[in-house]
Design goal:
- By secondary structure, the chain is mainly β.
- Helix content is about 0%, strand content about 45%.
- It contains 1 helix and 20 strands.
- The strands form 4 sheets. Strands 12, 13, 14, 15, 16, 17, 18, 19 and 20 form a 9-stranded antiparallel sheet that branches.
- Strand 4 and strand 5 form a beta hairpin.
- It is elongated.
- The two termini are about 35 Å apart.
Length: about 260
């Protein structure tokens, strides 16, 4: 939170460290914390929510192997070092089984606290809002840094992008680019490349070491001039992941094109 580092100790208690002293936060709810399955504390997860000035911790109880109990420390009710610090600063949540927490904010918006349920649910929820993705695919993407070449400006024409990629399902990989620091991305032509089961292709790639899907017809056109360029790779398919093994950008002023490995 800018003042404390929060962590779960091996003794099953949550602490806040201010750089000098570790403060045992959960001493005042000792009975609750004694229900923790200390053999499974490695799966516990937590996060600080700056929007509400709260620390959230989820952990397994009894003989459980999922994070079936969540405690929330509300630091608006009492300072951690205050003599008034007691059980009123804590709230317990059950009925949710977070496997991870994340504080997330879109541009110019307040930060929301998200959590992901375990494999039995596999959904992402926004804490305190009552909403989830409800199983709808969430766009997952990777954006490169803005980069340039050492050539003079008249050679800064970006032609094509070759992508050697892998995805865990036979879906589409979306490709975009942005020039000279622009925040809005433009789709390439075509806007996607197909990812197909390698067993149906006449060749295999050594780096695909597990059952997966590789890109075919994997060259797209850009055809733009700029000093700098950034590339965005995106999927929008539920429960899928992707990797980009190699991405080569072709550029130049004449037909004698050069290449730049991203």
């Amino acid at each position: 939170d800018g003042v404390f580092v929060f962590f779960l100790g091996n003794d099953g208690h949550a602490y806040a460290f201010d750089g000098v002293t570790p403060w045992k936060l959960t001493e005042v709810i000792r009975t609750t914390m004694e229900s923790a399955n200390t053999a499974q504390l490695a799966i516990a997860c937590g996060a600080y929510c700056s929007k509400k000035n709260q620390y959230v911790l989820s952990f397994p109880t009894g003989s459980g192997t999922t994070n079936d109990l969540t405690v929330v420390l509300d630091m608006n009710l009492s300072a951690i070092q205050s003599d008034d610090y007691n059980t009123k600063v804590f709230t317990k949540f059950s009925g949710i089984v977070p496997s991870s927490w994340l504080e997330y904010a879109e541009t110019a918006k307040a930060r929301d606290l998200l959590f992901c349920e375990g494999a039995a649910d596999s959904k992402t929820y926004t804490m305190y809002s009552g909403t989830s993705d409800n199983g709808v695919a969430i766009n997952s993407y990777y954006i490169t840094k803005s980069f340039s070449t050492e050539d003079t400006e008249r050679h800064k024409r970006w032609y094509e992008l070759f992508v050697d990629a892998y995805q865990s399902g036979a879906w589409l990989l979306y490709l975009f680019y942005a020039t000279d620091g622009q925040t809005s991305f433009v789709a390439t032509t075509p806007a996607t490349i197909d990812l197909t089961n390698p067993s149906t292709l006449p060749f295999t790639l050594p780096h695909v070491i597990d059952a997966g899907f590789i890109a075919t017809n994997n060259t797209v056109y850009i055809g733009d001039e700029s000093r700098y360029i950034a590339i965005k790779y995106q999927i929008s398919t539920l429960n899928q992941s992707f990797r980009v093994f190699k991405s080569v950008l072709y550029f130049g002023f004449s037909k004698l094109r050069r290449r730049y490995s991203i």
